[in-house]
Amino acid sequence: MLLQFMFFYIRAQQQTKDKIDLSGTWLFQIDSLDVGVNERWFNRKLEDTIRLPGSMTTNGKGDDITVNTPWTGSIVDSSWFFKPKYAKYRAPGNIKVPFWLQPVKYYKGAAWYQKTITIPTSWKGNNIKLFIERSHWETTVWIDGQRIGMKNSLGTPHTFDLSESLKPGTHLLAIRIDNRVKDINVGQNAHSISDHTQSNWNGMVGQLFIAARPQLHLDDIQLYPDVQHRQVVARLKINNPKNKPTKANIAFTATSNNLQAEKLQPITKTVHVKGVQTELEIIYPMGNNPLLWDEFHPNLYDMHVQLTNQGQSEESRVTFGMREFAAKGTQFTINGRPTFLRGTLECAIFPETGYPPTDVASWSHIFDVCRSYGLNHMRFHSWTPPEAAFVAADRAGFYLQVENSSWANQGASIGDGKPLDQYIYDESERVVKAYGNHPSFCMMAYGNEPSGKNHEKYLTDFVHYWQEKDARRLYTTAGGWPVILSSDYNNTPDPRIQRWGEDLKSIINGQAPRTDYDWSEIIAKWQHPTVSHEIGQWCVYPNFKEIPKYDGVLKAKNFEIFQEELNNHKMANLADSFLMASGKLQVLCYKADIEAALRTPGFGGFQLLDLHDFPGQGTALVGVLDPFWGDKGYVTGAEYSRFCNATVPLVRLPKMVYQNNETLNIPVEVAHFGEAALTNVTPSWNIKNAAGAVLFDGKLNNTNIPLGNAFKLGEIKQSLSNVQQASQLTLTVSINNYHNSWNMFVYPATLPEINDSLLVTQRLDAHAIQTLEKGGKVLLNVQQGSIKPEKGGDVKIGFSSIFWNTAWTNGQAPTTLGILCNPAHPALKDFPTDYHSDWQWWDAMSHSNAIRLDEVADHLNPIVRVIDDWVTAQPLGLIFECKVGRGRLLVSGIDLTADIAERPEAQQLLYSLKKYMASKAFDPKQRADIEKIKDLL
C-alpha cells in the first residue's frame, strides 16, 4: 500500500532519520543518440544539471518546437503542416501549433539523471528502497555501475530494492528515463502519455527519496470493509528477505478523528514468520455502529499496524472508509442507498507543469470546484492519478473511476497477444495494491475505447479476473465499449443527445426542443447500471483573456492563432461577446444532456466531457471552466447546480414554444439522490415574465419523496390565454431549497396584418430590384440552401454549439456556436430574445443559411449574427439590413416561408421583421451594392 509505505518513511525521517531526501540538484544529460548504456554513462559524471522533482520541460531542457517535433498523439487535421494560412506559424521563431497547448521545450527519448548519495552506518543490515512517486516513463536504475532493474508503471510509484547494493558509504545513483512508446504501446492518445493533455514529459515528480526499514517489514496491507458485519478484513504481507524463521508481534488499532466515532480496541497477534514472505489475515471488529463513508459523510478511519521483532519496530497507517459501493439492478448504491453518478472527466490537464500535481491541496481544490457545480464523481480517462488525488477524493466524498493508462486505439490494440495485454494486468495489480484501500476508488476499467479483433474476449476475462479477486469496487471493460453481460456496469455513449457522426440528425439538432424524452428504451435491454460515456462535448468560443494564465510550461499558442484569425476578419471587438453568447448556448446544451439522464428511470449516471476545457485533439473548448478550473464568466456553480445536483426538480415539457390559445399540461417529477428521503414536501411552481413579474403560480400536493428518480409530483395545468403579447417566460419548480427553471416562449395565435407596401420575396428578381430602385422596402427571405457555398452556404448551421470541435470530427455539423444579437434592436421587438441562442431560435437555425457579411459590405453590422467556428472565424450574418440604391433592404438568411403554418416561431419572427420595416425605425445606415446582394444567391 503506497500510503502505508509513504507514511512509514515520513515517520522514519522525523523519528529515526532513516530517510535520504533526493530532491534538489542532480547531474543530468540528454541521450538523444541512445548511446548512454553502451558508453556506460551510469559510471561517468554527467555534463549538465537539473532540479528534481520536476521534468525536463520545467527545467527548460530539450529542443525548441519545430515543424518536425516528434509529437505523441494523433493529429487528425494535419492542415497546419501545409495550408498557406498557417505558413507564418511554421516559420522558425514563430512556431504556433493549433492541436494542443504548446510546451516551451520538447524531448522524446532517453535522458540520464545522476546523484551521489551517502549511506549512514546506522543503515547496515536494513532493507533499503528507492522511491520515485511518479516517473515518466521507463525507469532504469544503476548503483555504482550495477544495474538494479527497470520499472515502467505509468500510474504508480517506481520502487527499487537497493538493499544488496547500498552498504554504508558513498555511492553513485544513476537513473535513465525513456519517454518513448516502445514495445508496450498503450496508445499514442492515452492521456497517461499524450501531448494532447498532460504532455509526454520526461522526469521524476512527487516524493523522491531513499529510505531504510527493518529487514522484517510490512510489504502490503489491504483492508476489506464489511459493512454488513461491521468489521474489516485485513490482509497483509510480511517480508523476510533473509528467509530466517522468526517470531513477530503485530498490533492493529483503528481510529477516527470524528468525535462521534466509537473508540475501538486494539488487536495483537503473534506471527510465526517462515519463508521470504508471510501472508496474514485478521478480522478487526469496527464496533456496534461504525461511521460509514459516502458523498454526504466522508467518514474516514486510520488503521495503525505495528510490527515488532527482536527489538525493532515499524508502524504503518492505512486510511480507509467503511463503505459498500455496489450495483442493485440498474442503479448504483452506496451502503445500500441508491446513488446517481454526476461526473466529469479528468484527462491529465495541468498546463502549469505538464504533469499531475502530487499534493493534496491541489486535488482538494479540484474536487471542491466540482462539488460546487453539483458533481459527486470523476472519471480518470486512460490514466491513474497520484496518491494525493485519492486522499483528496476520500476527504471530499467523491466516487472515482480509475483506468489503467491505456487508450488502445488509433495505432494500438488490445487482446491481440501484444505486450500491452500483459502490461494491463500488471499495471492493474500495481494500481490496486497502491490505491486499493481508498474508499473513493469505487470503479475500475482497463482504459478507454479499445480496438483489436479480440478486445471483447480479452476485456471479458479482465473483468472476471478482478471481480473474483477484489470485491471492493465495481468493474467494467472500458470507457465507451464493449458492453458485455459480465460487467458490473456499462460505460456507453448510447444515451446522450448528440453522438459522433450524427450531425444535424441528433435529438438536439434534428428534433424540435422538448424535455419529455429519456433513455429508457436504450437501457431496457441491460440488467445492470448504465453510465453515459462522455456526454456533452459542447464547445464555447475561446476566452482570449485566458492567455496570460498560461505562465507555466504549456502555452496557449493555439489561442494566439485563433485570436489573430478573428482580428484578420476585423471582429476583435466581438471576442468577449462571442464567448458570452456561445457560453450561454453551451450551458443550455449541457442542461439538456444532464436532465435527460436525470429523467431516466433506473439510470446509473453520466460522465461529462467535460466540466473544464480539453486543450488537445485540435483544441476542444468543451468546458464551462478553463483548464485551471476557473469559471469563464457566463455561469456559476450555483447556477449550474440547479440542474446538476443530488436533488433536481424536473418537468416533461412536450415543447418549448406555445401559442396563447393553448393550455400547459406539464408533468412534474424529481430526481432525488440525497442523504435521505424527503418528508412532508409541498412542491411549488411559478411562471414569470422577462421583467420578473409572476404571471402564474401554484402548489402541488404535499408528499414524501423517496430516494430515486422519475418520482411523479403532479402536473401543472395552466391556460395561456392571458398572455397577449409575444413573451419569454420562465417556469420555476421548487422543492424545499432546490430550484430548477426552464425558458418557454408564448406567441399570439393570431397576428394582425402589417399594412405596408413592403415586398416579401425569396428571389431578388426584376420586381424586387425595381422596388428598391423606386425607393421601396424589400424583405429578402432567402430559401434554405440557396446561398452560394463561397458566400456562406457551405457553413453547417444547427441549433447546438459545436460538438467537440471541427478538427477531430472532420467538420461534423453544426460548425457554428449559436447567435449573437442586440435584444433591444427594434426588428426583434416582437420576437423576445436575449443576446444569445435559446429554444425559440431552434426553428430559425434549422431553416437557415449563413451569409458571409464581408461579401456584402465592409463593416456590415447585422441584426442577428451567427458565431462561426473559431478556426475559420468568418463574419456571418443571419439577418441584416442595408440601403440599396434608393431603397431599403432587409435580408433574412432564415427561410420564413417553408411550412410556416407549422412554425409559430417563424410566424412571429416574420411578423416582428415586417412590423419593424413598416415603422420609421427601419432606416439602414449601411449601403450595399445590389450586384453583391445578387451574387449571394
Automatic annotation (TrEMBL):
Domain Glycoside hydrolase family 2 immunoglobulin-like beta-sandwich: 217-323
Organism lineage string: Bacteria, Pseudomonadati, Bacteroidota, Sphingobacteriia, Sphingobacteriales
Assigned keywords, A-Z: Glycosidase, Hydrolase
SUPFAM superfamilies noted in UniProt: (Trans)glycosidases, beta-Galactosidase/glucuronidase domain, Galactose-binding domain-like
Example GO molecular function: hydrolase activity
Residue stretches making up the Glycosyl hydrolases family 2 sugar binding domain: 22-177
Protein name (database record): beta-galactosidase
EC number: 3.2.1.23
Domain Glycoside hydrolase family 2 catalytic: 328-480
A Pfam match: Glyco_hydro_2_C
Protein's organism: Olivibacter ginsenosidimutans
Catalytic activity: Hydrolysis of terminal non-reducing beta-D-galactose residues in beta-D-galactosides
Family membership: Belongs to the glycosyl hydrolase 2 family.
Primary enzyme class: hydrolase
